[in-house]
Design goal:
The structure holds two protein chains of two kinds. By secondary structure, chain A is mainly alpha-helical. Helix content of chain A is about 75%, strand content about 0%. The longest helix of chain B is centred in the middle third of the chain and has 30 residues. Classes of the chains: A mainly alpha, B mainly alpha. Chains A and B meet through helix 4 and helix 5 of A and helix 7, helix 8 and helix 9 of B.
Chain lengths: ~220, ~220
Amino acid sequence: MRQSWWKVVCVLLLGYTIVAGFLIPVPALNIINETIRNLYFHVPMWFTMIILFLVSFIYAIKYLRSGDLKHDIFSAEYTKVGIVFSILGMLTGMEWAKYTWGEAWSNDPKQLGTAISMLIYFAYLVLRGGMKDEEKRAKISAVYNVFAFALMIPLLWILPRMVDSLHPGNGGNPGFNTYDLDKDMRMVFYPAVFGWILLGVWITTLKVRISLIEYKRENNF
Amino acid sequence: MQSSPFLSLVKKDLLIEWRQKHTLFGVLLYVGATVFAVYMMSGQPETKIWNALFWITQLFVAINSVAKSFLQEHANRFRYYFTIVKPTTFLLAKMIYSITLLLAMSLMSLLLFSVLLGFPIIQTGLFVVITAVGSISLSAVFTFLSALAARANQNAALMAVLGFPIVTPVLMMLSNLALKAITPVYQPGWWILAGTLLLLDLLIIILGVILFPFLWQE
């Protein structure tokens, strides 16, 4: 992943997202109005968060199979950046909800789902912070990562069946994917998703490189 | 008669529980005091509140009673167990022990709830079954997490923090299921929800069995 072509792609895609996202005309809908442009910024945050947590989960399994501490560093850094994206997604969503739903928090299942995943990964950080021994910390946090992620996915799938959703596309609300999302919006939305995911991976690779240098320095005498 | 290691482990834990009566009575008193505190705060609430309070009480009783399963044992004794049984056998034995303990505590708190906070239940049998399923779910999750917290040399507070986000949706499912036994409301999809909860329990136990050997080795 040291090659630079995908970083160029990332910058181009995000530049395109920001310029086109604010300039290209959008369908005029009641209540939502121009806030529909939040689609290019808020929704990709969730996609990126789930992808980063998934990669962290895969590295946790890799660590358990191999016992190589590098995999633990990868897993931990992907989790940390995933948490940053979950916070960004929550903030952009709550700001949007304040104007369209009338209040920032309204017990929407997707909000609850995110709150649950944030709590899980905050607990992961607390768990890691409490241990000094590297091997032990790596093993125990990998076990918790696998356990929590494997349970989180079915729980996130069950939650919407317990509470009604206000999100577009749920419970009779007009959705982005049915008739409101016209061709122009798709032209911005899909590049935006890829751009933000690449940005998340890019940030993580930088953090991983720093951690690997620190790890090598601490283990050389 | 030669018994299997699984049965003798469960028997050992239950025997310790019976002989060290002070810890057992400690947990019982905890249940009683919690229900009494809830009663002092709420009196005899309406049915939906009753249900919510009951499941919150279950959560706290579960944290307090299941924490003992791994956290009460000395680290050195784990090394001894390690030499005589397989890790999965050990985990399953601990799970059965905490399920038994929590089941008894749940029935006790149900009894106290019905004495102090009123008895709104229509279908008693169904409610008891749901309470039993709830005990299984809560103790399965917290047994595994207490093993994790014990390995990390942490206390019960960490176990609770790790468990809350996972257990909250499970509690929501349980209280929704229990509403059927309390109010005569038509609930479409009740059986699907019940099936999902059972599948989730199975998933928790399978995950525990797969992951516990990694936690166990040093």
